[in-house]
Hints:
The complex is a heterodimer of chains A (144) and B (147).
Chain A: H1 6-19, H2 23-37, H3 56-74, H4 79-82, H5 84-94, H6 99-115, H7 122-139
Helix pairs in contact in A: 1-7, 2-3, 2-6, 6-7
Chain B: H1 6-18, H2 21-35, H3 52-57, H4 59-77, H5 82-85, H6 87-96, H7 102-119, H8 125-143
Helix pairs in contact in B: 1-8, 2-4, 2-7, 7-8
Keywords (chain B): Heme, Iron, Metal-binding, Oxygen transport, Transport
Domain Globin (chain B): 3-147
GO biological process, one term (chain B): hydrogen peroxide catabolic process
Amino acid sequence: MTTLSTKDKKVVKAFWAKVSGQGEEIGTDAVARMLRVYPQTKTYFSHWKDRSASSPDVKKHGRTVMAGVGDAVAKIDDLKGGLLNLSELHAFTLRVDPANFKILSHNLLVVMATMLPNDFTPEVHVSMDKFLAAVALALSEKYR
Amino acid sequence: MVAWTEFERATIKDIFSKIDYDVVGPAALCRCLVVYPWTQRYFGNFGNLYNAAAIMGNPLVAKHGTTILNGLERAVKDMDNIKTTYAELSVLHSEKLHVDPDNFKLLSDCLTIVVAARFGEAFTAEVQAAFQKFLAVVVSSLGRQYH
Lengths: 144, 147
């Protein structure tokens, strides 16, 4: 399910080059959508007073998430090794149920579709979906 | 019974009044067949599905995409009775077509993305929540008669 082909990596890098300039916007929008459309995800952020799209906490977290995705793009040839620290963080400190990675991935894809409807073709979609699934898997490495 | 807010009812009707079934339906089905290629198992008699270009140019795929959207319209027209509306279709998908109900969710995710692309900024988080809730009810109703 998660072996990225040469074509996938090429497509992901090319699409990322197009969107990385709007990284903060994308991350913030994706996190805000996740909290609104999948309310169960709010349980991880009970320490935030404001969980709306305009909240500084949501913006900051959107930036953090996108920085992580950007890092993953750079380390696309060895996600398990490259994301080891992040995996330990999610496994031992954050303890986010891995089902939620899928939810955030879906919302990242929705945002990409709203912002770049003409570039987010089915081919780009499948490679990005595979890539995000591979990132999720790498993040789950250290869980058990 | 599903409780719909006024906003949700209005949003669903608004979306469906603005989309072109002949464009959105085929786009969603094509995307599903490309992004989740195992879904092609149900379309063995559709001819050439060998690659994304073939899928996107396939007239049978396009026709079926439109059929699906017309099917969804039935739920839009009677949002308080979606389970009843789809009882027969659920039996069909289970007994005759033998479709794994997990696939309904895959298609509904692709439809969400196609509609998101179509509306851009107007597809806000609130609109997305309403649309996904609607599709979740549809998906649940289609899986209802499986046994």
